[in-house]
Amino acid sequence: MLSPFLALVLPPLLLVPAMGLLSIIESDSPLEAEIRRKAFHVSIGLASLTFPMFLTRPWMVLVALSLAVAWMTVVRQVPTVRRHFGAVLHGADRASHGELYFAASIAALLLASNGESVLYIIPILILTVADAVAAIVGRAFPKSPLGGLATGKTTSGSVAFFVAALLVTWPTLFGLTDLSLFVSFAVAMSIASATCVAEAISSRGFDNLAIPTVALFILKLLVVGA
Q: What is the residue-averaged pLDDT of the chain?
């Protein structure tokens, strides 16, 4: 059992070595920078699956979030710190507050899931895995650029997101709920489709908020609230 102090500081402390180690790795191309950035998101996202075990009260979630946001703000604003820890987030050629939205989403899911593991795990997996796959595939194979609200995204990236979201959602739903194989597949298809659209029309890191919000809404509507 973690002490309250360690429980509060552990999530933000995970950021420091991950950001430092990945910032050391030099990236000579936009694709390499994107892979490095998404490697950070995946590592923190997967680590966050353990947070419900020790961030058990709302005030603990909010304090841990505040510490994480404070650290990332320092990285963004202080040149010396940014040089040693910020390359993993700010090396890509884009203006984004995605890391702050990512932390906020984890905290919001901890509060909103209210002990229902399926409400926390599935949005985190989609945000962590599917979003990373879409970003890397979209950079590596920029086929059929999308227009309108999805300008800047590609068909290849969106297809990759949908497939990855479906693959992480369906078995998780089937394993964590009493839904049948067919019903869990239908719900997973709905979640994958809706979050794929949310990702496509989001920019400047806002997908880190939109994706888990959409996934949580559908899960509450079709699974927990059904």
A: 86
